[in-house]
Amino acid sequence: MRSTTVRHFPLHRIAAAVLALSGGALGSAQAQTEAGAPTAQPIQDAGVVTVSARRRPENLQDVPVSVTAFGGDQLSKQGTPDITALALSIPNTTLKASRATNSTLTAFIRGVGQQDPLAGFEAGVGIYLDDIYLARPQAAVTDIYDVERIEVLRGPQGTLYGRNTIGGAVKYVTRKLGPRTDVRARLALGNYSQREAVLTASTPLSDTVRVGGSIARFKRDGYGRNLVTGAHNYDKDMTAGRLSAEFTPTPELFIRLSGDATEDDSSPRNGHRMTVGRTGGAPILSNVYDTRASLTRALGHEQEVSAHGWSALLEYTINPQLSVKSVTASRRDKSYAPIDFDSLPVVDFEVPALYKNKQFSQEFQFTYTGDKVQGVAGVYYIDANAYNIFDTILAGAFPSSTYTLGDIDTKAWAVFADANYKYNEALSFSLGGRYTVDQREAGILRQIYLGLNGSPAMGNPNAVLFRTDTDFTRGELEREDKKFTPKVGMAWKASASQNVYASWARGFKGGGFDPRMNVVGTRLSPASARAGYLPETIDTLELGLKSSYNNNRILTNIAVFDSKYKDVQIPGSVEVDTNDDGRPDSFAGVTTNAGKAKIRGVELEASARLTDALSVTGMYSHINAEYSQFLTSQLVGGVPALVNVASERYFQNTPKNSANLRATYDMQVPLLGRAGTASISASAAYKDETTQFEYASVLDQPGYTLYDLSLTWTSADSKIRAGLHGKNLGDKRYRTGGYVFPNLGREGVLTAFYGAPRTVSATLEYRF
């Protein structure tokens, strides 16, 4: 059973410190000011932080949505490497690279998310790039560059953001081009031979045309080595770029065309084997970042992840109250991913894989801003395809290579509206809704070939077919889900410095088909296979209070929420016996609708400028997520029956307690004849015990604390910034994921993946 005892960190002290900052008052967990960590916009800006959480510009302290905003300047100042680092300072949020990947994002907010990034599985946390929904998580873990801000919205956002944002949404907002020529360069050097360079430039070509672009190169040696091949493990080798052009032919019309591309040529990320080899006695390696994995190629390719896309934004102001926006976008990505489950040089349990995704989307938004009524309405359409093929090469009593193909089409459209009515200067009401039609069409093929050399599609033309376990041609599996997701809210400005809000919202994620389906191994009936798994829904009631004191030098935000989660989609992999010999000889994907769950929690963020030089920020969150119904099929008296095992199941990637405390001290320090400000920023971030799956396992990570320290100097004219950044200074080894298949292959599988060790980097930024 999971322990809820806080270990290794005085959580009560950090909570007390945060409460002390609040002056004993409650505030809403919607965001805080950026006095350190990275958290929100600078407190020096009198708390005026503009976000677009409700698809229209609003002051963050007034918007009745739980959102934390991170400004691009502060992300740079804190040396934030990528989006996963933000989770340390966001309540009830987990962001990490998916197991065995470098750039696929696993995101959980308030207990809702998705771990397996396979075709047809769409995460419960939506990822957005400039209002463009990214249907797939591949290539979503990118280094932060050319960004104006990042917003993280917590709770169901289905009304404005769509069917798959039942946990929340993460929004990248890139910079708009400035009216003058702007050239910026950033260099970074660090341990593990880290070397990075980012060049950004923009210029006006005329009064109505501006162009700009960024090119970024991120490279680093591995934290460990592959002791068989000599290659790096946990290294980075990524190139990214972005181009944009902006047109304002009339004062009422704005057009933005943009394109971006990312290529990740990092080595395969292989796990740390936590058990001794069964047949050869291979010992457990002392360095958790080292590996003996031997599978390095997939489909004749080294590991490679590429993604690119283009978009067209058009904004037209009809009159001072009414405007219209069109967002058109297309994206594609491709991942070659060799996964060595056993992490040993023998061929025992290997999975070379290919993932391909493409999408096209179109959205129209109409925004009205009146004295009494403000709102957004629109229509949205997406046409997406997710395609993956992989071999499961498995030794054992029956050595075989199982070829699996999943080809999932998704077409969805929606109409939505959200309006706010200002009853008087203190009281306002909001009402919104979204109607979604979600259509899925799937083809799934699963074939077993003799031997350990793979299938024809994966590079072995001489493979001998033994049996076909599953064969559904494209279009044979179809389903359509329709749902209306409403939201109602109220906001009351109790005083000039305190805003209270209450809201109720429903979230919805469509059903689908598991692309690893094994009809033979799981004895799945054709009717059950064609039905697939059901949609899931969540209803969340939230109460919040935002407060400011002493001319916004102190801000506190608190929110409490209560969610009812139904038909929870639980994707997983299980060992199966396809030969009826009593021994597992393969594995299969099984996605079930667990039943019901209750999720309750509290989120507190606070920031204070104690003096002109010293500022402090803090965060504490607590969540109690429990299944009340989790039905599984078991034999009872020799007869299959549904059994409720809710008391034995947990919410994965959802630590019960999280906390962050950061202090920043600024001082005027001239350097090289230039006036400037030196800043010292230190933080401690705590995460409670984290379960990796819905059941307890040895891979579960006990509570841990990470310590960071940054020293930066910024010139008075903001042209130069130099920094020294230390992350995870305690060199803590903490698990972020893994695989457990003890009975598959001759060696069995128990491998773990870890977060980054201690890293130190020096950065230099120059604005020409």
TrEMBL record:
Q: Span of the secretion signal?
A: 1-31
What sequence ranges are listed for the domain TonB-dependent receptor-like beta-barrel? Answer: 281-729
Q: Is Transmembrane set as a keyword in this record?
A: yes
List localization entries: Cell outer membrane
Top-rank lineage group of the source organism: Bacteria
Specify the TonB-dependent receptor plug domain's residue ranges.
Answer: 60-169
The name of this protein is TonB-dependent receptor
